[in-house]
Amino acid sequence: MFNFFKKDKSDKIEKGSTLKQRLAKSRQKLGSGLSSLLLGKKVIDEDLLDELEMLLITADIGINTTDKVLESVRQNASRKVLKDSDSLYEFLKDALTKLLIEDNQLNTDTNETFVILVVGINGAGKTTTIGKLAKSFQNQGKSVMLAAGDTFRAAAVEQLKVWGERNEIPVVAQTTGSDAASVIYDAYESAKAKNIDILIADTAGRLHTQGNLMQELEKIKRVLKKHNENAPHETMLVIDGGSGQNAINQAKEFNKTVGLSGISITKLDGTAKGGVVFAISDELKLPVRYIGVGEGINDLKPFNAKEFVDALFE
Amino acid sequence: MFDNLTERLSNSFKTLQGKSKLSQSNIKEAIREVRRALLEADVALEVIKTFLDRVQEKALGLKVGEGLSPSQAFIKLVETELTDIIGGENKTLDLKTQPPAVVMVAGLQGAGKTTSIAKLAHYLKERENKKVLVVSADVYRPAAIEQLEVLAKQVGIDFFPSNIDQKPEKIVADAKRHAQKQFHDVLLVDTAGRLHVDSEMMDEIQALQKQVNPIETLFVVDSMTGQDAAHTAKAFADALPLTGVILTKTDGDARGGAALSVRHITGKPIKFLGVGEKIDALEPFHPERIVSRLLGMGDVLSLVEEISRKVDHKKAEKSVQKMAKGQFDLSDMRDQLLQMEQMGGMEALMDKMPGMGQIPQSVKNQMMGGVDTKRMVAIINSMTPKERSHIKLIKGSRKNRIAKGSGTGPQDVNKLLKQFEKMQKQMKKMGGGKMQKMMAKMAGMQGDNGAPAGMPDLSKMKLPGMGGGNKFPF
Fold it and tell me: Among A125-129, B297-301, B450-454, whose mean pLDDT is lowest?
């Protein structure tokens, strides 16, 4: 019986899961870490900056972005804009907010079927994100269809089908091993014929270093484009929030091959990080569409820069 | 893997080049570079601190030995210390118990547990001749059980069915009983992915582990994990009596700092590496090899082992003899191409070659740009046996026929012939003393591995063409 409830955890209505609660772990690292670091410090010296560097890097903010932040701290400290550690706290909060893109919202309102192509490395959480995303679109009163484009991994098609069945969302699928581009193309035809609002296409996880698999993704996009040059309307990269500096490499490589229009970051509740969000926004200038902060269906949240920083710092 | 780290470390050592003495001031820069390189590689901060303290302490007291320049001495020191942290000797699975030996995996979502279980099953079956049963206790993720079932079928391993209405404890208990009755040597247990901060789920796996009492409990961790790898590993190690680690997705680029962190923090040996999408892409972990790859020394040992395992010995010996006589022809080249493909292609081989760390990725790509193994094999397949050994015959109409037959153009055929000629030339050049030397070196390196007879010949046929002069004949 216990298991039965457990399984349905994801379908339960969210209970008091504010972003702030969900990001408790990340807050401990960044916000609280920062306050305790700055507590009682009167002057901004190199020792403090060294410790600050460590703090930012261990929050997975990334070397380049950390350098950038520290550089601006140094400049402002030498120009006496930053007088003490209190003003440094506010300054940092502000600097980090500025790294994020202001408008991250995915707007799916079109007068045709809006196609979302979901890509990412193995185990990032693509299929789970698609499930949650589909449900949330459905809750907004939109009609949704899924395309089981992961024709490589064993039982990936079944995984998506189970999701579809649970939520009464149609899933277009062929057998494992069939051509992903043709599955997604079929799904698009079918979605268009049925006047579906949103089609979400799953793809097989692939490491960004595998050239031929990346080419396959490019083909999927090409095939869709041939049919409707606006499609896919969104090419979304899913990244595991626990990944380190490599997340940036992933984003760069996928962006190079398929041209991304947005990024979603999963599993942010478990890690004591969150820094990866800043690094990606800063280095790629791509909007962060959604962040996954828990297993519940409502824990996939549209990303809001200000809300996110507030949740980390307050 | 570890490519970027290797590059960074090489850079940091450049600052030491030409210095005659190691002093506080001149190693400071190198230490700083190493620290940054390790941070960039996602090695956990506390591990870096311990590591650098040790290096610094030893570097200052270091007597620069005869024949070693200070920079060489420093590299050697860093290498020794890294090997030390990543952890001594390679430890394999301990399956010595009354059968079935139960092996359980645990880890975060998406770390690669199910895939690793299938690879491990394949490994135990193929390399250690074990009768293996797999079972999934993942009753949460949709289609997780089906995934394992499909994979088990693919590798020809017995699968114990379970379903999502059962309790994990019951599933595993039933599987164990079944394994006993059917005389399975090993039972591999897959579990659901869980976050280390999810106390409910951590309690569940703790209870499962106690009840199942596996001889091996392996922590599966994604090699791309960031700074948090250390915390995750610690949480799992605190909850479960881990016996080892499987590091997955190491065929991605760079980083791999997680390997250092996890090893250091859990104190448990890394036993296997996941190195690719294919089912046989699982390698035993050899710390000393990873370190030498890390420092740009190449992973020659793994390469030799891989060659000896996959190369068709008879065919290889034949082509070595032919080569020595200068009779190397296109069908031999085809065999070589196919064998290389079998070993994961040019890229996998290049990764393990010494000195490859210093070569920028762009140059590597260029070197591989022309290598389209499938197409080359198709062209050779479209030739008659006589044409393969007498390439002078291939002119005009024959060339057109071959091009048509292989779905390529005459210029592709020309390119192949040119490459072949180049290769032949190189073979002749290598035929002399240089080849003998290389051979002796390779033979020595195999050491106690119990290399099968005929092995030196094999390494001789692969490596000279590729390693000598760092140029690829095709």
Answer: B450-454
Least confident of B122-126, B323-327, B414-418, B439-443: B439-443
Percent helix, strand, coil in chain B, to 5, is 60, 10, 30
Interface test mutation site (partner B, options A55, A66, A122, A293, max chain B beta carbons within 10 A): A122
Q: How far apart are CA B167 and CA A3, in angstroms?
A: 7
Residues 243-262 of B with CB under 8 A from A: 249, 251-255, 257-258
Whether residue A56 sits in one domain with residue A183:
no
Residues of chain A contacting residue B165, judged by C-beta atoms under 8 Å apart: 3-4
Is pLDDT above 50 for A7?
no
Residue in A with minimal Cα distance to B225: A243
Whether residues A63 and B257 touch (CB distance < 8 A) is answered with no
SS3 B92: coil
Residues A127 and A169 in one domain: yes
Cis peptide before A232 (omega within 30 of 0): yes
CATH number at residue A82: 1.20.120.140
> Where among A99, A122, A138 does a domain terminate?
A99
Structure tokens at B119: 């690879």
Q: Same domain, yes or no, for A173 and A208?
A: yes
Residue at A1 is within a domain? no
Taking residue B25's Cβ as centre, other Cβ atoms within 10 Å add up to 7
pLDDT at A5 exceeding the cut of 70: no
A15 belongs to a structural domain: no
What confidence tens digit (pLDDT) does each residue in A153-212 have? Answer: 888 898 899 889 888 999 999 888 889 999 999 999 999 999 999 999 999 999 888 878
Residue A247 bridge partners (DSSP): none
Question: Which position has the token pair 């392996």?
Answer: B218
**Number of independent structural domains in chain A:** 2
**CA B219 vs CA B141, B176, B369: distances in Å:** 19, 21, 38
Q: How far is CA A160 from each of CA A3, A68, A207, rounded to the nearest angstrom?
A: 21, 41, 21
Range A255-275 average pLDDT: 84
Q: Which domain holds residue A259?
A: 114-313
Query: What's the CA gap between B224 and B247, in Å, rounded?
Result: 9
**Would you state the pLDDT for residue B434?**
52
Q: Say which of A4, A57, A208 has its CB closest to residue B39.
A: A57
Q: What is the pTM of this model?
A: 0.71
Over range A280-306, report the average pLDDT. 87
Helix, strand or coil for residue A157? Answer: helix
What CATH number should be reported for the domain holding residue A119? 3.40.50.300
Is residue A263 in a domain?
yes
pLDDT for B14 = 66
Residue A256 located in a structural domain: yes
Confidence of residue B161 (pLDDT cuts 50, 70, 90): very high
User: In 3D, which of B220, B272, B212 has the Cα closest to residue B242?
Assistant: B220
- The tens digit of pLDDT for each residue in B235-246 reads 999 999 999 999
Q: Which of A4, A146, A245, A256 should one mutate to test binding to chain B, selecting the residue with the greatest count of B CBs within 10 A?
A: A245
Q: Which residue has the tokens 């393969």?
A: B388
Mutation for testing the B interface, residue in A26, A243, A249, A265 having most B CBs under 10 Å: A243
- Domains of chain B in start order, with CATH, are 5-87 (1.20.120.140), 101-294 (3.40.50.300), 300-466 (1.10.260.30)
Confidence of residue B309 (pLDDT cuts 50, 70, 90): low
- With CA atoms as reference, report the closest residue to B468 among B444, B441, B438: B438
With a cut of 0.95, is the ipTM above it? no
pLDDT on residue B207: 94
